[in-house]
Design goal:
Shape: elongated
Number of helices: 1
Largest sheet: none
Radius of gyration: 13 Å
Distance between the termini: 35 Å
Structural class: mainly alpha
Order of helices and strands: H
Oligomer: single chain
Length: about 55
């Protein structure tokens, strides 16, 4: 097991411990970074009880 040949792994944090819980705007900014940097696969584990028109 491992990564696909030629694949690279990047780790991004879209919030800091001083800004928890994260804001939806932070998530959108992080995803925009991924798009801008041609990152093809993004794995996020998210959970919230809040509703956001930005995300839905």
């Amino acid at each position: 097991m491992g990564t696909a040949s030629g694949a690279s792994l990047r780790k991004r944090r879209f919030t800091s411990s001083s800004c928890f819980p994260a804001k939806f705007d932070d998530l959108i900014t992080a995803l925009a970074y991924c798009v801008d940097n041609r990152i093809d696969v993004v794995n996020c584990s998210l959970g919230t009880s809040q509703v956001s028109e930005t995300v839905t």
